[in-house]
Amino acid sequence: MTRRAKKIASSPKRRSGAAPASLSLQGRAQDIALIDHLIERIDQGGSTLVISGEPGIGKSALLDVARHRASERGFTVLGMTGVLAEVHLPFAALEQALRPLMKGAEGLVPRQRSALLAAFGMQDDTGAPDIFLVALATLSLLSERATRKPLLLVADDAQWLDQATYEVLAFISRRLSSDPIVLVVAMRDDFKGSLGDASTQRLRLSGLDAADAEHLLDANAPGLPAELRNRFLKEASGNPLALVELPRGERAAGDTPWLPLTDRLERAFSNRLSDLPTIARLLLFVTAENDGTSLHEILSAAEAVLGERVGIDAMAPAVAAKLIEINGTEVRFRHPLVRSAMHQAADPATRQRIHAALAAVIHDQLDRQLWHRAAATIGPDDELAGEYDLMATRALRRGAVAMAIEVLESAARLSSTAKARGDRLLRAAELAADLGQPELMERLLRQADIDEANQLALVRIAWCREISQPPAANHPAKILALIGFAAKAHAAGAIDLAGNLLWRAAQRCWWSSASDELCKKVYDAATRLELPDTDPRLIAISAYVEPLRRGADVYLKLQGLAGTAPSDPTIARILGSTANVIGTFDIGVNFLAESSAVLRMQGRLSDLARVLFAQGWAEMEVGDWRGAMREAEESARLAEETGGLPWIAAATILKARLAGMQGNLEQSEAYAAQAEALALSIGASFLLAMLQIARGVSAIGAGRHWEAFEHLRRLFTPADPAFNFGLQFFGLADFVEAAVSSGNADEASRVLDEIERASAPTPVPWVGTMLQYGKAFLAAPDDAEQFFLQGLGLQGPGPAAKKWPFLRARFLLAYGGWLRRQRRSANARAPLREARDMFDALGASPWSDRAREELRASGETSRRRTEQVWDTLTPQELHIAQLAAEGLSNKEIGARLYLSHRTVGYHLHRIFSKAGITSRSGLRPVLASISRPAD
Questions:
Q1: CB count, 10 Å around CB of 418?
Q2: How many CB atoms lie under 10 A from the CB of residue 568?
């Protein structure tokens, strides 16, 4: 048994309403038909149904129908029920549902198994399991069981599920399409949590119509006087529970003040207390305050409060009054409103004595015992607050960050000094910031009441507020503030915090195209920290504040670190992103691949979404366009799941650029429009700049150079929202080509000169190659060849374009065209042929077509590119095919991509069909022709 097993029911019991199921389902034929449809179509894949409605409207009765129908069809039926008193116990409801499957945990991928066992308190783990690893382990268990027979997972009262369980359910609900699993979730109308995606079916229950309401009332309370009958019909408003319970709880017909229906129902339940013996009332109060269902705990706590022996027979009156049910060794309320009614009926002193008694009788579950000790405590208790600090540590070790925040907030309440209280609330706020919950963070900070003299605490608050904000807003004042906070942290000896603050300030400089003066202040402040030269943040700060001017120095440092493999994915991400910022994508792609591999293994999907975008951008530049689209698709999917709005936009821009370069202009613009709406909503100039580059290169491919010029000139127009100095050189080659081809050579020359001066004396190779490309376009016809030869590495010490296949192929195309126009057609054919082959390998069909046209004009014809099998695969299918070809099993692929193994199997079936093969052994030959364009 786990440490919580004694407090959770061995299997989910039906939470019956006060009305018999046949009556509470009055008028629900259409709703039942929907449930039948989901169960009957299980062969077509899984689905999620969210049922919502007010308390007592019949949600639980419909869940009973789902259980019954599924059992009849041979489903495995699992379930969980949220209970308000248990909401502080992380993964409690999940453990309730999964207990019948836990023998299968031995077959899980080791990291998933460890994460799940640690989450359930069945294994101590030094590292905190990420919630997504627990979620993937849960999906794997469910999917494995569903291979034997279909599975129904029911979650009732989802508004009271612990946060960790709810997040797992949300993860699962988005991944059921290929598994024979039906998830049915019931929640109250006023619950703000979101669950599922666009494919999720939603059913909001309304009240019964007049005829059904009258039938239900007359069946449960026959012979009511007409006046009283009309009053109950009006007050119930078609709510089945109200139609059954109001007549039982309010027998007097006199006028009463108006109350909301929920309050009236609670009063109807509490009115029954007056007819019960004192001991029965106390037992109900104990049951309401207990966060478990153990009959033994309830009786023992009641004995401690009363000071006398209490037997199970003392609960009989409460059972007869239809307030509770006893199932073996467990006690449950017949409806959650009964619990809340009992809680409100007990006076504070009684509740305090009950919690003290429960703390005394709970021996083997330390966290539960501490919760009750705190509830029984009035005023500060530093010893108990210290115990809560340890509880928060245990929660973090199990990946339950939300619980740790709640625990620290309780510890703050128990603190005897303002300093201890503020420190604990600040720790909780830092966790809330990391969790991406700015509203919760601000509420905690408001309570902290930090002494203005505590400079380091004020800096920590500033850091919380900074990291809780999306990384996009153009706000120079925030950069100055970060510099000031870094100085205070430095003065307090918190060098690491100061480094983080300045690294963030540098990022803001790049995001918002900050002035040279601001950038210099950030750089100077960073040098004063005297960090080691190899500190990733210091290297990154240099790159982000002056990517051109300091690019060569950063390039050398990155080259020196390129052979290392940082074990910390954050360090690898910083180094990889830094490489991207200065244009050394060949170095960046390796660091980012290392980072994404570790983040994937750790289940840190929010960070993974961000890294996959950067990795995809680097892969695009080094010529792995299929890998880039694969990363972009997954980045967008994970960012959407984890709420990373800037990275949804960024990944979508990458998709727009790839689609445009491949000639899919309609799809490219659809992606661009989606990304533009997101970027504008968060005021992200750097995203708008990237978007204009994507639109510009797509227009060049289509031969619309004037349109491309209009898109790209926005990067160089200070008043334009897309203006961004740090990203201008990313579009240099495109801008010069578009400008020259549209009759705007003067503007192209001005921009090229500015970038060449800024990157002097030694630009990084990618920038140097683009400079040669631009000079070749701008040069007089007789002078252009030297720039072509230098850029292609065929003459002089200039940078070669070999590492940048798309840029090299464009160089070759332009050079071949120049040679043909110089009446050197025989010489033009070799570069044009090479350009055509490179464009074909990339899938850059607009440029392939242009290379073929130039070849025809030079006297040589060539066959059109033949579509390859892998061209028909989606990015996710291609990814799965590549992993399968490497020998990974479906389970291993699922673990890598955070999918169920059945979903992987479904995709492989589609891949085999498209490729015309029948087994995994046929994948290698199909994929063998996929290669990155050669150096």
A1: 12
A2: 11
